[in-house]
Amino acid sequence: MTRKHRRTWPWHILTGLILVVMGWGLWYSTSLISYEWRWNRVPQYFAYQAEESQRAADYGTVSAIADAGDNARVTLTAEGGEEQVLEVARDSLQVSQGDDVSEGDQIGVTRHWAAGPLLWGLWTTLWISVVSGAFGLLIGLFTGLCRLSNNPTLRDLSTVYVELVRGTPLLVQIFIFYFFIGTVLNLSREFAGVAALALFTGAYVGEIVRAGVQSIARGQNEAARSLGLTAGQSMRHVILPQAFKRVLPPLAGQFISLVKDTSLVSVIAITELTKSGREAITTSFSTFEIWFCVAALYLVINLPLSQIASRLERRLGKSD
């Protein structure tokens, strides 16, 4: 008996209609408050042409001005005979041949592309996420194994750590790290922020690791020990590889949450993506546009993480 193929295109159309209705609702909501969209102000916060002033180094005269494409090559001859050659944008040239110049006079400007505040904020969010995620994974792996240890001290200390971190807000932990521990140990705000995020992530990863290891049948460990493996070898070669397959989805979710949690380090004056967005709003007055761009940048980070985790999960599943 053949299985009847289920048509899915009507559901895809329904999904598209729902998204269109949501978009229309957003547009209608902004129209009620008479909001004027100014998307043309946004690109400069990703990249812009920075200007650098070129100034005379000494008293002298403009001895020559030559064409250099879109630029002008200006030769200044000082009173002592020394020459200074400056290349500036042609439309910024402020002197003519034969003019006298004083030390510090602006001859023109040079222009070059520079990263805007949103790109710098994105970079800060990325490196904080990667560093704190790596340390959080190590801390979580150690904590999860300590939670399963036969040593009462290791088990009790890891339990206290997990419950303390999970029972208090991350924002409070960041404040404690920066204003108390950071002040006592003279830590930088970046170090304090990464440490707080790593310890927060480690507590949740520890519980994920513990649950994953406990989900493996006890017979797996007994079989490994019967083959002559030590407890450490059994854990490393038999239990943890199987547990990793099971904990991959919650681990991916935890690291995605970590990327979003980096927005909280802005309270200790770290200019990550969210703080960069707030600063851009104060100068552009384009509130909705900037926040939509900030949300899109977080999606740019998190969607590939979700896809990688899904592919890795399917690939590991084939080996079962």
Automatic annotation (TrEMBL):
Membrane-crossing residues? 12-30, 126-148, 160-181, 288-305
> Where is this gene product found?
Cell inner membrane; Cell membrane
Membrane topology term: Multi-pass membrane protein
Which InterPro entries does the UniProt entry name for this protein?
AA_ABC_transptr_permease_3TM, ArtM/GltK/GlnP/TcyL/YhdX-like, MetI-like, MetI-like_sf
Specify the ABC transmembrane type-1 domain's residue ranges: 122-309
* Pfam families noted in UniProt: BPD_transp_1 (PF00528)
User: Per the annotation, which location comes first and is thus the protein's main one?
Assistant: membrane
Source superkingdom: Bacteria
Provide the function of this protein: Part of the binding-protein-dependent transport system for glutamine; probably responsible for the translocation of the substrate across the membrane.
What PANTHER family has UniProt attached to this entry? GLUTAMINE TRANSPORT SYSTEM PERMEASE PROTEIN GLNP, MEMBRANE COMPONENT OF AMINO ACID ABC TRANSPORTER
Instruction: State the protein's name.
Output: Amino acid ABC transporter permease
